[in-house]
Amino acid sequence: MATLCKSVNQPGWLDLREQLWPHHPSAEHLAEMASFLASPERFAQFIEYDHSGNALGFVEVALRSDYVNGTNSSPVGFLEGIYVVPKARRQGIARMLVAEAERWATSVGCSEFASDAFIDNTRSHVMHAALGFEETERVVFFKKTLRSHRARLNSDIACHLQPDTSTAGQESTMTLHLDHLMVPSRNKIASAKLLAELLGVPWSETGVGPFAPVYVNDGLTFDFDEWTDPIPLIHYCFRVGQEDFNVILARIKAAGIPFRSNVHGPVDFQINTQHGGSIVYWNEPDGHQWEMLTVSYARQA
User: Fold this and answer.
1) 61/191 Cα distance (integer angstroms)
2) Is the Cβ–Cβ distance between 179 and 216 less than 8 Å?
3) What is the largest CA-CA distance in the chain?
4) In the CATH scheme, what architecture does the domain 177-293 have?
5) C-alpha Rg value of the chain to the nearest Å
6) Each residue of 7-48: pLDDT tens digit?
7) pTM for the model
8) How far apart are CA 64 and CA 78, in angstroms?
9) Domain 3-130, architecture per CATH
């Protein structure tokens, strides 16, 4: 029987993913793996091993609530990826993995199971037919580039933030407090819950407007907003005391989330101490650049 993945360190999982999708860096794989594990109600991954513990193949399945071409129900179990190592093919392993994925989909209330493949990937078409899938329809996707809401927003901000030269040289007496930030997400509830649990702060599934708020402190709220458009990756940084840093890092480790010591560096599971304190970076939820530090390098004393 296939084994359910419960950690990004599940033997063979990363290696199999890199064989199936070789053009993506390991850090990107690990971040996506961690995001899947953070939402077990929506995603599942299974690996088939031989008697010596060698990984022979894997399957990834998701619960899709948007429209899935050719289906008549919602949600639908969706075969996101399947791969069997060359030496283990034609031994029924793909069939066993798909059967495990189908059992999972049935257990979460699905009555249909779907998949897709590129039109020119005829080998995949043959495999799907052999696994019991029936072709439903063929579509061609189109797109056109529009000026994004983000670009318009940045333009508006730039217009409003032109310096007021009439007050040059005068000391500001204005008191400013950052009140809230919007965080784009794929699943606002799952993302808000994950961040709140990592930080150890309150959150809610509902708030003002369409957001799922995380109450970072008495004055700052992170409002998670659910997007279907491509999500811009944003850098968020928290400054905490060393004791809180240690507690939060322990939660990150317990959640199986990869972390690193440099913002664009590899996942090294190390702490950066070059700025007189402790710094780590991670990418969950939603692939954003999350940072935690104990001493500000932006505002040094």
Assistant:
1) 19
2) no
3) 78
4) Roll (3.10)
5) 23
6) 999 999 999 999 999 988 888 889 889 988 988 999 999 999
7) 0.52
8) 7
9) 3-Layer(aba) Sandwich (3.40)
